[in-house]
């Protein structure tokens, strides 16, 4: 029998928030992999951004709550966090898999008063040998800079998320923007246990082309570029 959220490991309850849009092809398998955590009391919240496929129907039996929100990761994640009951919230992309005992790892990382947030190291799945190097560079850069990306399953205390008014309402770089504010509260817990994320974007669009695009967009953001323009350059459109 599934435990309550209050039964989560080490007295720290956890809510996992998954923004989704037209993920019918994979959402059931993603959520099934999270079922052991759910059985241990972790709350699963799927936030749909206007799917036109069967995402909601397939997800509903496998989560504790389905929330509908305006499309956009920041808006969707904020909507999910507003419904979360856990002491800690974790934001998980629909193509990312957590370590088996992520709940224990997070509880240990946030024990005491020194850390308010954290993220996991990442490995990228796919056939191209460069994906392992890209993942290693992402982990190194994050550990050096204290900045986490959405692929790394960012987690933080819910009261801190509320204190900061959540994600900024921007079209791209919302994870970097939040990380910069969180760094003023504490350095992140950089967990060496790895989440697994699909490397399909790099493989579909070309490894070097995607690396160049990501670095160019990140530099432009730090120089003050409009996140909406960066989102268009990244490939986000209202129609897609």
UniProtKB/TrEMBL annotation:
Keyword terms: Cell membrane, Glycosyltransferase, Membrane, Transferase
Subcellular localization: Cell membrane
Keyword Glycosyltransferase found: yes
Chief location category: membrane
SUPFAM superfamilies: Nucleotide-diphospho-sugar transferases
Domain of life from the UniProt record: Bacteria
CDD domains: GT_2_like_a (cd02522)
Domain Glycosyltransferase 2-like intervals: 15-119
Cytoplasm in keyword set: no
NCBIfam families tied to this protein: glyco_like_mftF
PANTHER family for the chain: GLYCOSYLTRANSFERASE, GLYCOSYLTRANSFERASE 2-LIKE DOMAIN-CONTAINING PROTEIN
Protein's recorded name: TIGR04283 family arsenosugar biosynthesis glycosyltransferase
Organism of derivation: Actimicrobium antarcticum
Lineage summary: Bacteria, Pseudomonadati, Pseudomonadota, Betaproteobacteria, Burkholderiales
